[in-house]
Amino acid sequence: MANVIKLRKGLDIHLVGAAERIKRQPAGSGMFALVPDGFVGMVPKVVVKEGDHVRAGDALFVNKQCPDVRFASPVSGTVTAVERGERRKVLAVKVKADAEQEYADFGRKDVGSLNGQQVCQALLEAGLFGYIDQLPYAVSTTPDTKPKAIFVSALRDKPLAADFEFELEGNETDFQTGLTALSKMAKTYLGFGAKQTAKALTEARNVELTVFDGPCPAGNVGVQVNHLAPVNKGEVVWTVDPSAVIFFGRLFNTGKVDLRRTIALVGSEVNAPAYYDVLVGQRIGDVTDGQLKEGRHLRIINGNVLTGKACTADDFLTAHTSEITVIPEGDDTDEMLGWILPRMNQFSTSRSYFSWLLGKKEYKPDARVKGGKRHIIMSGEYDRVLPMDIYGEYLIKAIITGDIDRQEQLGIYEVAPEDFALAEFVDSSKLELQAIVRKGLDILRKENA
């Protein structure tokens, strides 16, 4: 029987444009790309060149610091470009897909008969190990780290987030195989929401089950780690996206790297929000073309409105993208009388707008910040939406001032930038908290290297 942890801090933001539970197929441009930035903290070394032919599962690049960690091509086809940016940073490795897909064969394996080292080696050979992240530092991990536990959160509760239970349908066997594989490497925790009822979650085997009952960000794996096995200095836990668990299971059950997943196209500017069967590295335009409302300047977000990144139709889905969100940019909006208006249709965490009188209501936000940066004010705003045993405001101040000792004392090792996404949303100082936390984690990682 699953343990139940009830959380009271947090904030659910209800937005227009949730996906209907139907699946569509994306357009077939045939162009795919593996994006290194989707694997945070990893420095890529490209092992292919333009014109090479690769199979699905062949490595496109490796982790420069740990070459055993390879990253597999999602499709078979011809490498058309290695796209680079400033200082020759690798932005993407593009592959034009074959009409008939060819898969590298890694051999089926009975995961029940394998030990942890054999599971780890199988994931390394297939180019899937890099889909495992770690705390501290919230980066893609390497096999030399020894985790005290592995965490999987099947609860996605950010605004307009894709429902993992819908993606899980038809993939239950692979999901359980993936969980069993992870349990061979370390004690594995599976967290899910109080409203999730799929048997593949509630009756999962070889893992410790925990129900998280509360508002967003209860689904954040960092929040779950904080309540079950907090990370102290010198300790490591691994975290795995639930879609990656399915990838792992397919590898052991079929011997192939199959990076198919289901994502949601959502937002107020989508004509008919729905789910799409895609591959990691799919061109975003394959999903959005012909599906967006016309007449306004739009913000396409690779991810959700709290943690995603602005992109264009010519960008590609990253390793952990579970939704594409489209909202108005807002730069073409003129408001007569501005802040004097009662703003019945705009969301506010305070009662400064009259919209709170309407109770639970779906809103149509745009991408405007609505105000400039101000001095940081110790207002307690972060604490109301951060259900973790840390002092968020003091931690942010310690990062800004570069006080490493203070950061360690305040729990920086157990946080990820996404844990501060809601705090950034409610912050009256308009600070980019996720970027601040990312910078602090990167500095600490270099200090402790």
Write the layout of secondary structure elements.
Elements: E1 3-6, E2 23-24, E3 31-34, E4 44-46, E5 53-54, E6 59-63, E7 66-72, E8 77-84, E9 90-97, H1 116-125, E10 132-135, E11 139-140, E12 149-153, H2 164-168, H3 172-185, E13 188-193, H4 199-202, E14 208-213, H5 221-228, E15 237-240, H6 242-254, E16 260-266, E17 274-279, H7 285-288, E18 298-302, E19 309-311, E20 323-328, H8 381-385, H9 392-401, H10 404-409, H11 421-426, H12 433-447
Parallel strand pairs: 1-14, 2-17, 12-13, 12-15, 13-14, 16-20
Antiparallel strand pairs: 3-9, 4-6, 5-8, 6-7, 8-9, 10-11, 10-15, 16-17, 18-19, 18-20
Helix pairs in contact: 1-3, 3-6
Question: In words, what does this structure look like?
Answer:
By secondary structure, this protein is an alpha/beta fold. 22% of the residues lie in helices and 22% in strands. It contains twelve helices and 20 strands. The chain has a seven-stranded mixed β-sheet with strand order 1-14-13-12-15-10-11. A six-stranded mixed β-sheet has the order 2-17-16-20-18-19, with no helix packed on it. It has a four-stranded antiparallel β-sheet with strand order 3-9-8-5, with no helix packed on it. The chain is globular, with a radius of gyration of 22 Å. The mean pLDDT is 94.
Notable traits:
alpha/beta, 12 helices, 449 residues, seven-stranded mixed β-sheet, 20 strands, single chain, six-stranded mixed β-sheet
Strand content: 15-25%
Mean pLDDT: 94
Estimate percent helicity. Answer: 10-25%
Q: What is the C-alpha radius of gyration, as a whole number of Å?
A: 22 Å
Strand order of the largest sheet: 1-14-13-12-15-10-11
